[in-house]
């Protein structure tokens, strides 16, 4: 699979996180947004590994159905606390997408076409429920999800009150 979109999206996102540091506004801080992207990368990495090794996993299951964990403050704060300062956060962001790219690059076209049951939410809105090709999840993450969070972090930077 082509992984250039992941690399470009993550590099742009990391630049925004670096500029924002820990801007606090309504909703998540820039660090919590970064933790959310790290968590999503980890989940996609695990899903790709399970596809490669022939085991089943529902993208976002069971934890998303149980606790919407990729958006839960407890989970995100645990990531932030585990990585330490801004340098640690940026290093973990890099590790998360490098691992994702490493495993995604091993997927064959048929692996990428594997239908993965998914439940994707944005706040209270449920965007996707049901099987989707794994490649579609990956492309949405690279072309929509990460860029949307980069804009969110940029907006936090522009509206911060220091």
Please summarize what this structure is.
The protein is mainly alpha-helical and 162 residues long. It contains 7 helices and 2 strands; from the N terminus they run H-H-H-H-H-H-E-E-H.
Task: Give me some keywords for this one.
162 residues; 2 strands; mainly alpha; single chain; 7 helices; 65% helix; Four Helix Bundle (Hemerythrin (Met), subunit A); two-stranded antiparallel sheet
Overview of the molecule:
The chain is mainly α and 162 residues long. The chain has one domain: dinb family like domain (Four Helix Bundle (Hemerythrin (Met), subunit A)). The chain is 65% helix and 10% strand. Strands 1-2 form a two-stranded antiparallel sheet. Helix 1 packs antiparallel against helix 5 and helix 1 runs parallel beside helix 7. The chain is globular and about 45 Å long. The N and C termini lie far apart (43 Å). The relative contact order is 0.23. About 4% of the residues have low confidence.
Write the layout of secondary structure elements.
Layout: H1 4-20, H2 30-52, H3 63-67, H4 73-83, H5 86-104, H6 109-112, E1 115-122, E2 125-133, H7 134-159
Antiparallel strand pairs: 1-2
Give start-end ranges of low-pLDDT stretches: 61-67
CATH superfamily: dinb family like domain
Largest sheet composition: 2 strands, antiparallel
What's the average pLDDT? 81
In terms of DSSP E residues, the strand content is 5-15%
- Assign the structural class, choosing from mainly alpha, mainly beta, alpha/beta, alpha+beta, or little secondary structure: mainly alpha
| Multimeric organization | single chain
Number of DSSP helical runs: 7
Radius of gyration: 15 Å
Shape: globular
Return the domain count. Answer: 1
Q: Strands of the biggest beta sheet: in what spatial order? A: 1-2
């Amino acid at each position: 699979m082509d992984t250039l979109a992941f690399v470009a999206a993550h590099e742009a996102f990391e630049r925004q996180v670096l500029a924002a540091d820990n801007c606090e506004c309504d909703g998540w801080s820039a660090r919590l947004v970064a933790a959310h992207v790290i968590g999503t990368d980890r989940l996609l990495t695990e899903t790709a590994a399970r596809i490669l090794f022939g085991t089943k996993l529902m993208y976002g299951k069971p934890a998303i159905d149980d606790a919407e964990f990729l958006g839960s403050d407890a989970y995100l704060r645990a990531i932030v606390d585990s990585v330490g300062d801004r340098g640690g956060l940026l290093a973990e962001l890099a590790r998360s997408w490098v691992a994702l790219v490493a495993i995604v690059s091993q997927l064959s076209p048929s692996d990428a076409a594997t239908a993965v049951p998914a439940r994707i939410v944005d706040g209270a809105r449920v965007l996707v429920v049901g099987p989707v090709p794994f490649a579609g999840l990956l492309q949405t993450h690279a072309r929509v999800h990460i860029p949307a969070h980069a804009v969110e972090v940029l907006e936090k930077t522009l509206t911060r009150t220091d």
